[in-house]
Amino acid sequence: MNIVISRLAQAVTVALLVGAATFAMMRSLPGDAAWRIAAGRYGYDNVDAAAAEAVRAELGLGGHWFPAFLSWMGDLLRLDFGRSLVSGQPVIDEIAHQLGASLWLALAAVGLSLVIGPPLGILAGLRPGSLFDRALLVISAAFKAVPQFLMALILILVLSVQMGWLPAAGYGQPRHFILPALALALGLAAVNARIARDAMASVAAQPFYAFAEWKGLSRAQVLWRHGLRNVSVPLLTYLGLQFVLLVEGVVVIESNVGWPGIGHALVHAVFARDVPMVQGTALMLGLGFVLVNALIDLLAARIDPRGAR
Amino acid sequence: MTTTTLSRPWPSGRIIGAAILTLIAAFAILGPVIVPGSPFAQSLMKSLAGPEPAAPFGYDHLGRSLYHRLVHALRLSPLIALAAVATAGAAGLVLGTLAALRGGWVERVLVVLADALLALPGLLMVLIVLAIMPGTALGFWAGLSLVLWVEFFRLTRATARATLAGPAVQAARLLGFGWPYVFRTHLWPEVAPLMLTAAAFGTATAIMGIAALGFVSVGMRAPTPELGLMMVELLPYWREAPMALLTPVLATFALLLGLTLLAGGHRT
Questions:
Q1: How many angstroms separate the CA of residue A278 from the nearest CA in chain B?
Q2: pTM for the complete prediction?
Q3: CA–CA separation, A97 vs A74, rounded Å?
Q4: Is A90 helix (H, G, I), strand (E, B) or coil?
Q5: Pick from A7, A59, A13, A74: nearest CA to A283
Q6: CA distance B248 to chain A (A)
Q7: Which residues in chain A have their CB less than 8 angstroms from residue B251's CB?
Q8: Considering the domain B12-33+58-263, what is its CATH architecture?
Q9: Are B138 and B75 in contact (CB under 8 A)?
Q10: What tens digit of pLDDT does each residue of B170-211 get?
Q11: Where are the domains of chain B?
């Protein structure tokens, strides 16, 4: 119950913060916001004072900031995100359209990172201090130091431009997934592997682990019955925190490879100063983080009931 | 200054990291002294030409010396990053100590605010602040500070809560020592090593963020030499001049690797 309440408080604060930030962004647009929005809608060559006035009246851009702020937050709390300033479509429809693409990419990346990272980490954690352990430490430090956009760049150059194995950009076929998902997954796996390694090493050093070996279980049985469940809790918790890293990566990498997702939309929205779209996408990402972490808290409490108070 | 914690020898990873960073800093500071030149001077005759004495790393697509562009890029983002980390570190330290000291609603409000900021992707906050603030460098500084203080705040608060509740602080208070003394002798030695790690990670995050936004063309603007921007500018010429593209890529990698190693291990 505690988990749910604190996560709800977090969700409300996220909404307030996003609302305040986007309101400040709206008010601080350089020049006349009405002109800018009209230019975004009709093209820079077709804007005149009449069009700007029409936009001003439609969006209520004149007047004092405080009533505007209240109505802004009111709309937000009623989950009325308004319409995109550029396309004129309701923001909620645009986001629903883009969220799917991002979600699949993120899931593919997390899945791939879980296949790569934790098995290597567990192998290293079973033999701490071994050559393999130290090699993994060096490799994961190196991979961690490569920002995701750089990873995407390297993969594009090596796999698509030089080898010609994969398309550098595009969307719609399964093979388009491989490159961006791999770019995201390698960075995540570098951290996953370290977390799994440390958790495994500490579990394997526990008396109960040694006892399980003494009583005659095979190494595989000990790992399966006594190791993995204990390793999974810190891994899971960290996965929740990594979600933000993942979202950031998604924002950047989607722009790199032309993925029609929420991150791509966000960058374009910021570029065009399409504030309702920025607000909608930011809110979606922030609340998504809270939701994912709430679920992970609950799942972790289920896996390891000792922590639940 | 009584610092028992700093006398411990550094692990080798940290020393290697510090060495890499020292080399990069020396290059950024002394670069133009060794080979004078400008990062903006163009000579289209030399577009994508190879290295020569006046330009040890060759030229980019507009015939600007890559050596000098790199020197300036290695000044720009680390400076912004360090300024942001200094601001964020000071804010996090003050607010974290305050939260642990006062407790009550002060602490609750700060914690809820920090948790909410943690839920929002950092680059997104930076993008929004960039749209609000005039001037890109100023915007990056403000946005990154806003994102980075949370980590320092959480570390300080967690450490301060444990330390301030301990018998040593209680004894010091009973002996009549003031809070500044308690902070200096009891709290700071506990927090300082954590702060170094967090600062190294924070600087790496900030540099990565500036480069990433530069790479997707929403960060620094065109003639400015910036790591991410240099990469995206040179990307179309990969086949003709692979070394030109590799220059900023390797510099970024070395910078981030140095910071990661300096941070030492990972957060626990």
A1: 8
A2: 0.78
A3: 25
A4: strand
A5: A13
A6: 11
A7: none
A8: Orthogonal Bundle (1.10)
A9: no
A10: 888 888 888 888 888 888 888 888 888 888 888 988 888 888
A11: 12-33+58-263
